[in-house]
Amino acid sequence: MLIGELSERTGVSRRLLRYYEQQGLLEPVRQTNGYREYCDQAPNVVGHIRSLLAAGLPTAMIAGVLNCVQGDPAEPVLSGCRGMVDGLTAERARVAAEIERLTTSQRALDVLLEAAIHAPE
DNA sequence: TTTCTTACA
DNA sequence: TGTAAGGA
Length: 121
Hints:
This is MerR family transcriptional regulator. The protein has 121 residues and is mainly alpha-helical.
């Protein structure tokens, strides 16, 4: 299918679809006229890209994960990506650290707000 | 009509 | 990201 159809079926703009290609996330073949030709799995792949992006994964890592993610984006099926586990584990650790940092900020704000409640006008 | 690339707002 | 330009 051409970019227009893929765009309609995924709700992702043509512009963004071309951007995904630039990032190495999608690799459509080119017709003789230069038009991008996407495979039947493209809609699913785009779905995976969106969920992976939502998970906060950097595009560089998404490119790798896409090679072993299949099926409906709602219920991803992973196969043969043991090599990805380390990367994903590291990413999870990064997210956990971020949560800790934010939690610390939240506590600091709570202390301030608590003090504000008792502060005189 | 649809798509392509490049580049600017 | 949207959009315009200039082609195919």
